[in-house]
Structures are given as structure tokens and as C-alpha cells.
Specification:
Blueprint: E1 4-5, H1 14-18, E2 24-26, E3 31-33, E4 53-54
Antiparallel strand pairs: 1-4, 2-3
Length: 55
């Protein structure tokens, strides 16, 4: 299961910089995780200021 970004996302971009496989990109109104690229490392979770990223 890839990580997911909820509607709490404020599009700050902090998570995208933390992802080692560049699975996170800016989507429509929030950032999104590409489930095929995500390796479920969890590096992005702690970077989000609103706690929008969940397993
Ligand atoms: Fe990237 Fe790891 Fe977050 Fe998946 S869990 S989106 S690989 S930082």
C-alpha cells in the first residue's frame, strides 16, 4: 500500500523534497503520491506540517 495525501494538504511541497524516489508531485489543489512509484518508506510522513500523509 502506497502512502496517501489527504485534503489536509496545503500544497507546501515539503513532502515532495523528502521523497527518495520522487513519487510525490503537485496535483489539482493538493500534492499526490504515485502509488506505482512509492516504496512505502515513510520519509514524507514527518515532513508534512498538517499531518496530511498517512499509510
Ligand atoms: Fe515517497 Fe517514501 Fe512517501 Fe512513498 S512513503 S511517497 S516513497 S517518501
Amino acid at each position: 500500500m502506497a502512502h496517501k495525501i489527504s485534503d489536509e494538504c496545503i500544497s507546501c511541497g515539503a513532502c515532495a523534497a523528502a521523497c527518495p524516489v520522487s513519487a510525490i508531485s503537485e496535483g489539482d489543489g493538493k500534492y499526490v503520491v504515485d502509488p506505482d512509484t512509492c516504496i512505502d518508506c515513510g520519509a514524507c510522513e514527518g515532513e508534512c506540517p498538517t499531518g496530511a500523509i498517512t499509510e
